[in-house]
Structure formats: structure tokens, C-alpha cells
Design a protein that fits this description.
The chain has about 750 residues and is α+β, with helices and mostly antiparallel strands. Helices cover about 50% and strands about 15% of the residues. The protein folds into six domains: about 1-190, Hypothetical protein af1432, CATH 1.10.3210; about 210-355, 2-Layer Sandwich (Beta Polymerase, domain 2); about 400-480, Ubiquitin-like (UB roll), CATH 3.10.20; about 490-560, no CATH class; about 575-655, no CATH class; about 665-739, Alpha-Beta Plaits, CATH 3.30.70.
């Protein structure tokens, strides 16, 4: 019969023994009929030959049964967890479905098994199980805390059974996972016994010689060590009793793994680790006498034995941030041996052993994300108060609210903020990958660069050497890192394109037998409406300026500057200015002559005032400067009253010609709530407007208020009013005004 062949005689006996012990232990919580139904599932799976031994040759039924015993005995979980573990191999092998489990054993068991299967899928993807990211991911994907606890129990069970296994490579891999993943999790959860067992067993398999060397040394010295502790405590016990203190004392030997760590850190042999054990004196003190009695014990001990002031730790006066309170002293005991003594009350000992994860922090285990710590503290609380499934669910760590974990095809894990896109991930890997990203493949499906990532996604970035960053990518990426890289790439591209445009312009000048002269080019740029060289070359690169038109303007300006052509109209100073008779440049009004502003106006030097930045359509006036030019100001310019009062004789009436001029810079002030995405929303509106360019943006945030200054290029007031109206519709914007 297949059932008999699947189990050795030793395994059959072991399963019967463990099952008997397990169901006796869980008799109060296991439902009637559970044992029989589990046996039916087991028999069916074995008969169909669907169960397979693992790489160590361990029988899955033996492993599940012994894991269930650890879950019930060591961790204290009840029916849902125990039954789930016993059925785990059935579900993994496909011998039973979750729907069948749900029907026969209820939603709770199916829920836990579903979580175990999700963890198994994620686990299979990653090669970096020792990373803090992976530990966080495991916790994230556990649908409730019992899944993680079962995983720890399962690993303890495996580590116990691979002692004499010949598969050394698999043994080392499992041991490293135990040391770097499961032991820290067990420690954070307060499962100290399981944590120490995992650490010692992993050391046994990874550092075989060191493990047995320490073990032999401890065995050799156990009797003498116990005798020494008794000699140390006997006179101390008499003094404490004479002082009328109520207390109890206990000694503990450090674990083999802990001793090995000290040997590595201090570069000594076992004999050089002087604090192989510690003694705790735990006082039964009322709250108002705790500190006084602790210091009293300290005084008694240091009167008897010489203390090492460098090893003194006072967490009584100022407790640790996690609430840990205790006095630690190291004294020179009999035979000139150093002994560590910890003095605390029962309340302090309870906090140190069970409360707020203080013990694992005291041991120096680095804390992970704050969310993980809070969740684990809640888990410990639930375990220690014997609360079960209903209470456990509230401690689920839902890190998806803050972050997502995604895999590369090789199994490496990356952590990104929630809402991160494929493009964010590409830039997270490398700038070059981001710049050439055209999409990704997730779960065998091609997705765009806009696709938002979910925890557990295995993402393969697709690139194309012809791809380059676009301006709208700034609206796709969500991380600061990616946005900065996109901006940097766009700036570099603009610089490269401007350089190419400059080279092309100089080459065409050479072809047309035109000498390159910087002053002439500057004059040409000014005539074409460009004050900044980079803007000029960028316009050439984008095609906004025609290369041939620029060359023609340059040639004309060069002849003009060299006096080769007759100047059509000399530039007049403002005080000599006489309005031409041309209808285009002269308008008679009831108030007198008016200067008509036209970009084609010849022979007159005028500029737009920077203080008020007038735009076509604004009510304006001209002001004759001391240099003879004219500055065009808005009628409502903040400097207008002073100019009119002090220099009324320099004021020139002005108005715009019917034809619009070039674009003008306008500064807008935007005030609103400092909400996430408000800047992105504002810039998106501006980028969608035709013939409006965003030149600069300055942001200041204070006390929840957003204060921004935007400089845009536009050609008339009608476009300005439309833009202001649209900006006011942005959620969170309180006011938009023109500077």
C-alpha cells in the first residue's frame, strides 16, 4: 500500500507520538471531527502520490506535524493555526484546494493557508532573503501575524531535522536564512527560546568547529561555573537578607551563538570572554521604593566586590527610550573573575522580558521600519495576553499605505513609495535605464511607463537606445529622485541640442562666407527678441527660429555694423523724439500725441520696464530715462505715482499698436494649501497652454501654506487673464495675483 511505503517505521511511530501529544495539547480548541478529516486529506494525498520529500529527504507530514506542535506548545497559537499547518503540504502539493479547506474547516483556516501560499510565492522570487527589505516584505505579505509565526516554527522544525544530512549546500542555505531572517524576526516577536535555538543551530551548521569548541568548553566548565555562582551569591544573599530586602536571584549562561559573537568582536577565545554568565537580582519593591532599593543593592554589592566603572550602565535614573530600566554593574568576584550583575525590580524585569520589544533592542538588534516595530510590539502584546484570531487581525502590518516592494527578474528587492510608476523604478535602478525606458514587463504582460507598481510585482524594464526623456515625464514620475534625474537629463539634452545648433549655425555661416563675430551675433539676437544666448540656441534647435532667416538677419546686421549700408533712420534720444506722420505710429487723441508701441517701430529706443512687466493689452505710459531711452510702464505700476510726481515732464503717453508684439515675461504669485501634487497640477496647466512658456518657479512653504512665484512668457493680457482663471481652479489654490 502506498501509504505504508511513504512512511518509514520510525516516521510512523514519530507521527503517532507527536499527533497524540499535539491533539492532547490542543484538545480545548480543536473541533470535533477535525482529526478525522485531516486524516482523510492526508490519506488521499499519499494514495495519489502527490506528496514529495524536500531536498533534505524530510517527510512533509512529519515536518508539518512537528511544526504544529511547536506552534501550539512554544508559541501558543490555537485551532486555526494548528489545523492550517497540518494541511499545509496538502495545499502546496495541489492535493487539496482552498475552497475544499474552506468548506471542511472554515474561513479562518483557509485564510491562514492563503497567507502561507502568498509568502511562499514571494519567497521563491527573491535571492536576497537576508535583507531588511525582505523581512519587511514578508511581514507585508502575511495576511495576519500567524503566518509569520508559523514560518518561524517551520524553520525551527527544519533546522532540528537536518543535523546529519549530507546535502551540505542546502544545509548552509537554510542555516543562513535562519540566522539572517527568522532569528531576528523571532527575537523581535519575543520568542527568545526559538530565537536562541535558531541562532545556535545555524552556527552549528555554518561554523561547525567553532560551535563544538564553545560547547565543549562550556560542558567542561559547567560544574565549576555553577559552583562559582554559588560562591559569589552566598555572601551576597546574607547581606541582602540582613538589609530586609525581598528578592530572588537567577543566573543565566549566554547562548553559544552569543559567546561566539563576543569572541569575534573581542578577538579572544572562549576563556577570554569573561561574562559567560550574568546574575540578575530581582526585587519585590513597591513603586515608590523601586529606585531606592535598587541603589541599596548596588551599594551592598560594590561594598563587597570591586566594580568596573567603565562597565557601569545606569538605565534606572534615565531609562532607555523603549522603557527599559535596570542597573548593570560588572564586579570582580572571587578568584579575580569579572561577573555582570543586573539589578531591577519585578516590574522592570517584566518590561525588559516582555514589554515594548525592549529586550531585542537591548541586545543590539537593529530596528527596522517604525511600522514594522509597532506591528511586532502589537504581536507580542497579543501573544502575551493570550488573545487569538479576532484580536490578531488588528495587528496586520499594512505597509502598502506607505511603500511597495518590487522584484527584478533576478530576485533583487527594491522599496519604492506607494504610487511609484514603472518610470520611477527605471530611474531607481540607474539614470541610463530611466532615460531609455519605454515600458516594462510585469507578470508576463507589457505595460507602459505610467503603470503604477504593486508589492510583489516582478518588473523587467524595457529600454530602447533611441528613447530619450520628455518634458511630460515630470508628470509621470512620483519620486523626488526620479524627478531630479528627469530634470537633469532634460537640461543636458537642451545643452547638447543648443551646442549642435550653435555648431550648425557657425558651419552655415562659413558656407555663406560670413565671418563669425560675437558682437554682431549678439545684436542679431537682440533684434530677434532674445536676451539670453541659451534661449536663442534652444529656439534654433527646436525650430522656433528659421536658420536661414537668422543667417539673413546676421548678414544684414554685419553690413550695418560695418557701415556698408546707409542707416535708414538714426536712433533718436527721447527728448528729440518727434512722432512720425505715419498712421501706424501716430494717433491723435483729445489729450494730445501718443507713442504707439510696435515691434516694427524704427529709430526709437524703448524697453519694457522690469518693475511691472507690461504686456500687450495693459494700459501703459512711457517714461524718458536719463540715458535718452524710453521705458514702458503699466498705468498701475507701483512706481507710477512717484514717477508722475517727481518727473512729470518725462512722461510720454503710449498705447499698443493693433499688431501683437513678441512674448513678455510676467510674474504671478500663487498662494494656497501646501498639498501634495499642487506644484505638479500648476505646471501641468501652464504646459498645456498654447504660446505660454514657464520660465521659472520659486516655492516657499510655511505652516501648511504654499507660496509660489511663477514667471511665464505670454503675448497679451487676454491670455494672462485666462491663465489666472485656470490656476484659481486648482484644488488648494487660494489666490493668484500678478506682481
Amino acid at each position: 500500500m502506498k501509504t505504508a511505503k511513504f512512511f518509514t517505521d520510525e516516521e510512523s511511530i514519530r507521527i503517532q507520538t507527536v499527533q497524540k501529544e499535539l491533539f492532547a495539547l490542543a484538545a480545548d480548541v480543536v473541533q470535533e471531527g477535525d482529526e478525522e478529516k485531516i486524516s482523510l486529506y492526508l490519506g488521499r494525498a499519499v494514495e495519489q502520490g502527490m506528496l514529495q520529500r524536500d531536498v533534505f529527504g524530510i517527510n512533509p507530514i512529519v515536518k508539518d506535524t512537528e511544526t504544529a506542535l511547536i506552534v501550539a506548545e512554544e508559541i501558543g497559537l490555537t485551532r486555526g493555526s494548528v489545523v492550517s499547518v497540518l494541511l499545509w503540504s496538502m495545499v502546496k502539493s495541489g492535493a487539496a484546494s482552498l475552497d475544499e479547506i474552506r468548506k471542511d474547516f472554515g474561513e479562518e483556516v483557509a485564510h491562514i493557508l492563503h497567507g502561507l501560499m502568498r509568502i511562499r510565492e514571494v519567497y521563491a522570487k527573491s535571492a536576497t532573503v537576508g535583507s531588511e527589505n525582505f523581512r519587511s516584505l514578508l511581514v507585508t505579505f502575511a495576511e495576519d501575524m500567524r503566518v509569520i509565526l508559523i514560518m518561524i516554527a517551520n524553520r525551527v522544525c527544519v533546522m532540528r531535522q537536518i543535523k546529519d544530512n549530507d546535502n551540505v549546500e542546502a544545509q548552509r542555505k537554510v542555516s543562513m536564512e535562519a540566522a539572517y531572517l527568522y532569528a531576528p524576526l523571532a527575537h523581535k516577536l519575543g520568542l527568545y527560546k526559538l530565537k536562541s535555538e535558531l541562532e545556535d543551530l545555524s552556527l552549528k551548521y555554518l561554523e561547525h568547529d567553532a560551535y563544538y569548541h564553545i560547547k565543549e568548553k562550556l560542558n567542561e566548565t559547567k560544574r565549576s561555573r555553577d559552583a562559582y555562582i554559588e560562591r559569589f551569591l552566598k555572601p551576597l544573599d546574607e547581606k541582602l537578607q540582613a538589609a530586609g530586602l525581598h528578592y530572588h536571584m537567577k543566573g543565566r549562561t549566554k547562548s553559544i551563538h552569543s559567546i561566539w559573537q563576543k569572541m569575534q568582536k573581542q578577538h579572544v577565545d572562549v576563556d577570554g570572554v569573561y561574562d559567560l554568565f550574568a546574575i540578575r537580582i530581582i526585587l519585590q519593591s513597591p513603586p515608590e521604593r523601586e529606585k531606592m532599593e535598587c541603589w541599596q543593592v548596588f551599594s551592598i554589592i560594590t561594598d563587597m566586590y570591586q566594580s568596573n566603572p567603565k562597565r557601569m550602565r545606569d538605565w534606572l535614573s534615565v531609562p532607555k527610550s523603549n522603557g527599559y530600566e535596570s542597573l548593570h554593574i560588572t564586579v570582580l568576584g572571587p578568584e579575580q573573575k569579572w561577573v555582570e550583575v543586573q539589578i531591577r525590580t519585578e516590574r522592570m524585569d517584566d518590561i525588559a522580558e516582555h514589554g515594548l520589544a525592549a529586550h531585542w533592542r537591548y541586545k543590539g538588534i537593529r530596528s527596522g521600519e517604525s511600522g514594522v516595530e509597532e506591528w511586532l510590539a502589537g504581536v507580542r502584546s497579543a501573544l502575551e495576553t493570550n488573545d487569538d484570531a479576532q484580536l490578531m487581525d488588528q495587528f496586520r502590518l499594512d505597509l502598502k499605505e506607505d511603500e511597495v516592494f518590487v522584484f527584478t527578474p533576478k530576485g533583487d528587492i527594491f522599496k519604492l513609495p506607494t504610487g511609484a510608476t514603472v518610470l520611477d523604478f527605471a530611474y531607481h535602478i540607474h539614470s541610463k535605464v530611466g532615460n531609455q525606458c519605454v515600458g516594462a514587463r510585469i507578470g508576463g504582460k507589457n505595460v507602459t511607463i505610467r503603470q503604477k507598481l504593486q508589492s510583489g510585482d516582478q518588473v523587467e524594464i524595457l529600454t530602447n537606445s533611441n528613447q530619450s526623456p520628455k518634458q511630460d515625464w515630470l508628470g509621470i514620475v512620483t519620486t523626488t529622485r526620479a524627478r531630479a534625474k528627469v530634470r537633469q537629463s532634460l537640461k543636458e539634452m537642451e545643452s547638447r541640442q543648443a551646442l549642435l545648433a550653435k555648431e550648425e549655425l557657425e558651419r552655415k555661416m562659413k558656407n555663406k562666407k560670413l565671418d563669425y563675430e560675437e558682437p554682431v551675433l549678439m545684436h542679431t539676437m537682440t533684434k530677434l527678441g532674445y536676451r539670453i544666448v541659451t534661449d536663442f540656441y534652444a529656439a534654433l534647435a527646436d525650430g522656433k527660429l528659421d536658420m536661414n532667416a537668422v543667417l539673413e538677419a546676421y548678414a544684414q546686421q554685419q553690413r550695418f555694423d560695418h557701415g556698408e549700408v546707409e542707416k535708414q533712420a538714426p536712433t533718436l534720444s527721447a527728448d528729440q523724439f518727434v512722432m512720425p506722420e505715419d498712421e501706424k505710429t501716430k494717433r491723435q487723441t483729445e489729450q494730445g500725441d501718443v507713442l504707439v508701441i510696435d515691434q516694427n517701430l524704427k529709430g526709437l529706443d524703448f524697453q519694457m520696464a522690469k518693475c511691472c512687466q507690461p504686456v500687450y493689452g495693459d494700459a501703459v505710459f512711457g517714461f524718458v530715462t536719463s540715458g535718452g531711452g524710453i521705458k514702458i510702464h503699466r498705468e498701475d505700476c507701483p512706481n507710477a505715482p512717484q514717477l508722475r510726481q517727481r518727473f512729470g515732464y518725462r512722461i510720454v503717453k503710449a498705447k499698443w499698436a493693433g499688431k501683437r508684439g513678441s512674448q513678455y515675461p510676467i510674474t504671478l504669485r500663487v498662494i494656497g494649501n501646501d498639498d501634495i501634487g499642487i506644484v505638479n497640477n500648476i505646471t501641468n496647466i501652464i504646459s498645456k497652454e498654447e504660446k505660454i512658456l514657464l520660465r521659472s518657479i520659486s516655492i516657499d512653504s510655511n505652516d501648511g501654506l504654499f507660496n509660489g512665484s511663477l514667471t511665464v512668457m505670454l503675448d497679451d493680457t487676454s491670455r494672462l487673464q485666462q491663465l489666472i482663471k485656470k490656476l484659481k481652479t486648482v484644488k488648494g489654490v487660494k489666490n493668484v495675483s500678478r506682481s
